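Re-run with default settings, no changes from the original entry. Doing this only to confirm the output is reproducible before filing.
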Amino acid sequence: MPLSEAKKIYFASDVHLGAAGIKDHRRHEMRFVQWLDAIKQDAEEIYLMGDIFDFWFEYKKVIPRGFTRFLGKLSEITDSGIPVHFFTGNHDIWIFDYLSEECGVQVHREPQIKTIEGKTFYLAHGDGLGDYDKHYNFLKSVFTNKFAQWLFAMVHPNIGIGVADFWSGKSREKNNKTYGSHYLGDDKEWSVLYAKDVANENQIDYFIFGHRHVARTVSVGPKSQLLFLGDWIKLFSYAVFNGHSVELKYFEQEQKV
């Protein structure tokens, strides 16, 4: 896909809207909306790479309360003709058709490979790739099971969403304790090992992953780079492709200039 003149492609992940540990939810949401408002001026496409919500479940007639500014901005952007791609993460794995039907986004539940301006991109949230984390892969298979989803939908939203918010918080606490928000090293990061496996068999220029809450570029092959997108809880980081290369940037730093 060729880029229009002076247009760019943007990637962001791990906003965790609604997370219990965030003190000012409105400010947190508004910051991300301000970024979307800023990039829409020259965006060819926008990729939201998972865990945008800290929890999300669509009942037949009910969605989680809140996020109106974000959902409105998504709708405004897609209405203007800019494609927005939404990858489900481990925290918002239960996104079904609301965002696509009401906000016009393209929802992806599996990794995608795309060629843009002659560069090949491997795009994924970054969780459960390969066979490195068998325990998580088993849990993911349960959460994506249609019968399990149906059972959860039978629970009243006040109870179901409350339980899920509690579970989400505990999951994040466990991950922070086990992995933290620091880079573990090329030989210990499962997504790096997975990317190297893929790069050995395929020519991929850029792997774009979220999930790990670190902002970092890692070489995973002679001509392959993996970019961890960071998060919007502490780092406020994102990546931008200008048609030639991908660069990590930080929204908070830009606001201070």
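The CA atoms of residues 108 and 243 lie 23 Å apart. The two ends are 33 Å apart (CA to CA).
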